[in-house]
Specification:
single chain, about 450 residues, alpha/beta, Rossmann fold, Dihydrodipicolinate Reductase, domain 2, eight-stranded mixed beta sheet, binds cytidine-5'-triphosphate
Length: about 450
Amino acid sequence: MNLKNKKIVITYGTYDMLHEGHLNLLKRAKALGNYLIVGVTDENYDRSRGKLNVSQSTQERVHAVEALDFVDKVIIEKHKKQKASDMVKYDVDIFAIGDDWVGAFDYLNEYTHVEYLPRTEGISSTQLRQEQIGVIKMGIVGLGRDTQSFVDEAAFVSSIKLNRIYADDFLAIKKFNKENPQIEYGHDNYDDFLDTHVQAVYIDTALKKHYMLIKKALQAGKHVLCENPIALEKKEMKELLSLAKNNKVLLLPALKTAFLPAFKQLLKELEKGEIGEIKEVRATRTSLYREKNYPESFMAQGATNILAGYPTLLIHKVLGKRKNTTFFDQYDNGFDISNLIVTQHQNNTVGVARVATGAKSEGDAVISGTKGYVYIPAPWWLTKEFYFKFEDAHKSYKFKYEFEGCGLRYMIAEFASLIHRGKRSSEVLRPTDIVAISRIVLDYRDHKENRDKKEH
Ligand code: CTP
């Protein structure tokens, strides 16, 4: 094509389950010029703007649009401000978008000509998802510290219907039912609960009960999302993972940080190597449960068991496999109230995880490299923003992602989306990641047992 005659049109969208409405819009857009660029939204960007229920991955959606012969180029839209810079970068003549957006993009008239095109009536990705994919029936197991938030947040994930609960305390179920009338069915017998049509369960009980509850659910063919750690013994952990694999169901620890848009973006940004070779990762998580009126039995599970999964997640995702581990724990009433866990990884890199339920500290994280560092302010495990910082302070920059609710909805949406897509493991929390993260707790248990033996 002669460059002089090239008339560039650009449009953006999610294009989930590519449908007739999308095709009509894209054809109308192309007809405005002769070269069509389509910006497909990145999944992290979609989630940060509240679009939780997209069923296809970025790659799948990009491939579907690329396959259209009248589309000339496909790009990925990663953040809100990208549109304005794309107009300049691609020397765009016309920005086109469906008329459900009238007015929203008038600000781009400064860079190009904005056209709102008629939308096709009676079809949308939302509608197709509801019709074609169906809704996953999910039940709750136990009444733990996150159960109420889980119910509140699941309401934002349209592909899940949560309407059943199991707990061993019938009075507690009745009380819960009263406060959450949408949870219509309550059981105090686990076998009866598993015998129903629930396809997936969320487990939030005392940690020592996890193994048995997960095992039975997996044997009954249910997908499982369980608070971390999923087991407190090595052989139990292995057994559960192979049971999930053999029964072709999904087993995920409920480490919500792993699924937050900002956390996922952080891992992607680190891969670019801007801070040089990474040498150390330090992350802290403390919580004074006594001051929050948690029962003593909760604290007695130990600070390491309750909290270590979070810093270990960050350290493991950034530094990989662990070689050596040293625990510096402090005790009160027979259980650990704090633990400084120093780990050595490949290439002599070092992880420093600090957890405590009996001492308060700043819950931030720092990833140090040979050319700079990343700082994630407290609470780093509810990742919203992070800073790339360098010796020359002028070069520093920041990433900020919007974050709705208490963060659980992103994890629930990912869990549902994996089930719908027939995936039996998650990219962010692969079985090898789950083992590595859980092993900190299991190794600490061995460490305590060896010490106790020596003392007696
Ligand atoms: N579009 C259209 N007609 C439809 C649906 C979408 O013209 N029936 C247009 C939108 O206006 C937008 C583009 O297609 O310009 C991409 O929209 P997208 O949000 O991906 O599609 P929806 O089906 O509206 O998705 P959702 O239901 O998830 O909001």
